Amino acid sequence: MKLVYRGKRIEGLLAIIPANERSFLDEMDQFDFPRGRSLKLKEVMGYDRHRIVDGPVCVSDLAVAGFEHLFGRGLLGRDDFDALVLVTQSPDYFMPATSSVIQGRLELKHDMFCVDINQGCAGFLVGLQQAFMLLDQPAIRRVALVNADVMSRKVSTRDRNSYPLIGDAASITLVGRCDDDAPIHANIKMDGTRRDALIIPAGGFREPSNPDTRTQHTDIEGNLRARDDLVMNGSAVFNFVQTEVPPMIQALLETAQVDVDAVDTYLFHQPNRFMLQKLADKMEVPYAKMPSNVVEHFGNSSGVTIPLALALNLRERVLGGTLTTVLGGFGVGLTWSSMLLPLGPLEFCDIIDYPQVS
Amino acid sequence: MKSILDILSGIRPEFDFSTSEDYLADGMLDSVDVITLVSDLDRNFAICIEGTDILPENFSNLQAIRSLLSKYGVAA
Fold it and tell me: What is the 3-state secondary structure (H, E, C) of B33-58?
């Protein structure tokens, strides 16, 4: 599906990461694999360290800390946004919506549109487009898009396929209107027939959590996990990304009539370095234009990896100027989406720790 | 330059890769090993195996790997 937006911009961005950092070298003995195989995996995938919550920290905790940072530093006023869009796969509760929890904890105004979206690695693109659509309403001047997940709490620590790459994080992206009426092209596709490729099988209403679903079993590859844990079919996900993403980006650029070399940066979701470099090879994009270092620094935090990639690699450039940017997200659903937009100058683009030390 | 068998043995030294007809079904390689194998093949033969070629059937046995490499101009 092709989509087009006008007169919208990202104004600023804050990422919030847990201060608790774990290293792959310290954790690899918890997997039922020889150290040599794990070390090869570290080298190829770019696993090094990841940030995960320490204890029962929830999505609303990270988000509230982020908003308080913005309020305290005068980067955002409490009444300066009219919608709060939260994209998460790890809500505080089944009900109420975690966006309402955040609104309530911050004691924000009642004249506000709050909504939760259940999305993962394409969640920044899905949330950004929801924000753009909300901004077509005259009453909504600015949207706070919150991407947040604490998926480490739903991944077995003995699952070598998923645990080393998982990361927890949140981001707050302020999205508003602007005078630039140039089209912002985007596209999105979804395929629910492949929903089992990334799934937490039990714990919802289809298969409520019980002692059996909480019992860990060893899979064919030696990973130990329960049905209450996230399970990823790595081969299926890898093939999905390599098959669907390059033509999606090609279609986006053709629609916008922009040459692949005219793009300053390709900010893609960050599953691992190997997968991103294979995409770059296929698309003939220099590695320098496609950051792939978020997993090695922070882990894969689903919809937060694009904001993290931006703040980690391009902060100065988007604070001081404008980058022609292609955003790309792909993951659970399955869902894949991309957008071509001018990014910057931003009013802020920062990463803070949770809890904040200073 | 290493041979394919040398590369496979470097990943899983406990197995003899010259006899099996299906490395994955026989438990000699898993999906993560395949990623390591692709990385090693890329580096060893100075090629770039496309992501869409990273399918289990292309790494199921020695002949399948040879066939894949031939697509990239490598006679191994």
Answer: HHHHHHHHHHHHHCCCCCHHHCCHHH
Q: Alpha-carbon distance A228 to A231, whole Å? A: 9
Which residues of B sit within 8 Å Cβ distance of A?
Answer: 11-12, 27, 30-36, 39, 48, 50-52, 54-56
Q: Which domains does chain B have, with CATH numbers?
A: 4-71 (1.10.1200)
CA distance A255 to A18: 39
DSSP for A143-179 reads EEEEEEE-GGGGS-TT-TTTGGGB--EEEEEEEEE-S
Residue type, A232: M
Q: Which residue of B has its CA nearest to A44?
A: B36
The string of DSSP codes covering A296-353 is: HHT-B-GGGHHHHHHHHHSHHHHHHS-EEEEEEEEETTTEEEEEEEEE---S-EEEEE
Q: Looking at CA atoms only, how far is residue B20 from chain A in angstroms? A: 18
Residue with tokens 């919208």: A8
Q: How does pLDDT run across B14-59, given as a tens digit for each residue?
A: 899 988 999 998 989 988 889 999 999 999 999 999 989 998 899 9
Which residue, among A313, A3, A5, A43, has the nearest Cα to A181 in the 3D structure?
Answer: A5
Give chain A's domains with CATH numbers: 1-358 (3.40.47.10)
Phi first, then psi: what are they for A33, rounded to 5°? -140, 150
Q: Give the C-alpha separation, B49 to A200, whole Å.
A: 32
pLDDT tens, position by position, A295-350: 999 999 999 999 999 999 999 999 999 999 999 999 999 999 999 999 999 999 99
Does this model's pTM top 0.90? My answer is yes
Q: Which of residues 216-275 of A touch B (CB under 8 A)?
A: 220-222, 234-235, 238-239, 241-243, 274-275
